[in-house]
Design goal:
The protein is mainly α and 499 residues long. It is built from 22 helices and two strands. The protein is 72% helix and 1% strand. About 1% of the residues have low confidence.
């Protein structure tokens, strides 16, 4: 038998090549590149990538940059579901902003993140086999809603399957975010609160960027985008001023986002936060209300008092009622006073619906479409109205119908059956928030339940006048909030489920 020569273990150190290999192994495996070699390689890679990006054309360079930065993040999302939720929120903020400047399908990145999150959960369930995160009344209602929307592909009244494909993403598929969030937060308090802070940061950053647009002006690219379409320009430029959209696609979505965020800040100011946190939240509240005024969104102006009244009725606090009464009197005087300011006039008009020609026109359109809704229990098919209806089925009468409201759109596209399901979905959302708000005792958790429930109630009201939830980033924020509604109670030691 041949003997093993132990001396060979040390032979490589006697040659230059052996010494070099030993040094490299020590740098890589022992020190984990946390040394001058690692810094040098990182610097060299950065200079190389920078040179390549600068020398290529803009589109190719941008794609290369996204691949180099995005690919590792996407892989990490597969192993960290809470991080994946944070990435979805970040992408949901940037997608509507990016679509103004590129025709690239940037929205598919959000679809990819949703797919990765769902696949990650399914892979874990092979071992865990624990579906308790999806066993809530709200979860079952969302599953029913998802199933109904997916089955719309066989709707006999639908005139375009492509319209269904493009529409089902925002109406139903993105609600998979709820299940991803419910799994990620079920026993991960750190992750849940990190995502909450990210939502607050996103909203506050949007408010600051909106104030920048108001006082420092739109960028050259944003101005060119607005001016490129006459109808779009008319939507943005009203009362001798530009309506502010911030990162959102349109001022209406941004205005509703700021209205909800302002009341959310109010609930945390009154609730279980520290003094420094309250001061920061007051600043956020002021900025959100301030920039909301420049969006020119009547729905947002009406949502603020509606949300405040709902929250006051939720907590039943005498001091809040007293302060609210004083503010209500001041607000009434503000609405009644005469003014020459376009901003103030726009706010006042939100509380005079009888004098609003656009509201009267919407009510008239709703009466005209009622016979169609009553005679089509399954509706005209997803995507038969709005942008996708005009694109894939322009000859249809439904594609020309100005639905405006989410409830009206659901009734037209999904029929009165779909309208009932959509209404029930809002009911289950608000019921879930109220259920856990009453039973939780931790001051901060209770305040968060009050804030999220009030936010979802405001959106339910807003859906009567606008498509408040279907637009990004509101869609993803809304579904993450639904996930938090069913998981935050897990972090309250005093919580007890009603028997």
């Amino acid at each position: 038998m041949r003997r093993f020569n132990h001396g060979r273990l040390f032979t490589r150190h006697s040659t230059l090549l052996g010494q070099l290999m030993a040094w490299f192994e020590r740098q890589l495996w022992v020190q984990k590149m946390n040394n001058p070699l690692g810094v040098a390689l990182l610097l060299g890679a950065s200079l190389t990538v920078g040179y390549l990006v600068a020398s290529l054309d803009f589109r190719t360079g941008f794609v290369l940059y996204v691949v180099l930065i995005g690919a590792p993040l996407i892989v990490y999302c597969l192993f960290n579901v809470a991080f994946n939720v944070g990435m979805m929120l970040f992408v949901a903020l940037l997608v509507p902003f990016a679509t103004k400047f590129t025709s690239a399908p940037v929205g598919t990145l959000l679809d990819l993140l949703i797919l990765i999150g769902a696949v990650g959960i399914l892979l874990r369930q092979i071992k865990e086999r624990d579906w308790s995160f999806a066993k809530y009344p709200l979860s079952y209602m969302i599953i029913i809603w998802l199933y109904y929307n997916i089955m719309q592909i066989v709707n006999p009244y639908a005139e375009s399957r492509m319209a269904w494909l493009y529409t089902v993403r925002s109406v139903a598929i993105q609600q998979v975010v709820f299940f991803i969030g419910a799994y990620a937060f079920r026993n991960n308090k750190k992750g849940a609160f990190a995502v909450l802070k990210l939502i607050i940061l996103i909203c506050f950053g949007s408010a600051l960027y909106g104030l920048k647009q108001q006082y420092l002006g739109f960028s050259a690219a944003e101005t060119a985008w607005v001016m490129a379409d006459a109808e779009r320009f008319q939507l943005y430029y009203q009362w001798n001023m530009m309506r502010i959209p911030s990162f959102c696609y349109d001022p209406t979505t941004f205005g509703i986002l700021m209205a909800c965020f302002s009341i959310f800040c109010l609930t945390l100011i009154i609730g279980g936060t520290t003094r420094n946190q309250k001061l920061l939240l007051v600043l956020m509240l002021i900025c959100s209300l301030w920039v909301m005024a420049y969006t020119g969104t009547r729905t947002a102006f009406a949502l603020v008092p509606i949300g405040a009244i709902f929250y006051a009725g939720l907590i039943l606090n005498r001091r809040v009622f007293a302060i609210g009464a004083v503010l209500a009197v001041l607000a009434a005087g503000f609405v009644l006073k005469s003014t020459s300011s376009g901003v103030i006039y726009r706010i006042q008009s939100a509380f005079k619906p009888a004098q609003d020609d656009s509201m009267n026109l919407r009510l008239e359109n709703q009466k005209k479409i009622q016979p169609f809704i009553q005679s089509h229990p399954l509706g005209g098919g997803l995507g038969s109205c709005g942008v996708w209806g005009k694109r894939f089925n322009p000859q249809s009468e439904l594609s020309k119908f100005p639905h405006d409201s989410s409830f009206v759109r659901m009734a037209v596209e999904l029929g009165w059956i779909g309208l009932i399901l959509y209404t029930l979905l809002h009911y289950f959302v608000i019921r879930t928030g109220l259920y856990y708000f009453i039973r939780c005792r931790d001051p901060l958790i209770k305040a968060l339940y009050a804030g999220i429930t009030t936010w979802t109630f405001m959106l339910a009201v807003a859906c009567y006048a606008q498509e408040a939830i279907l637009q990004l980033p509101m869609n993803v924020i809304y579904n993450v909030f639904l996930a938090l509604l069913v998981t935050l109670k897990n972090f309250d030691p005093a919580f007890r489920e009603a028997q």
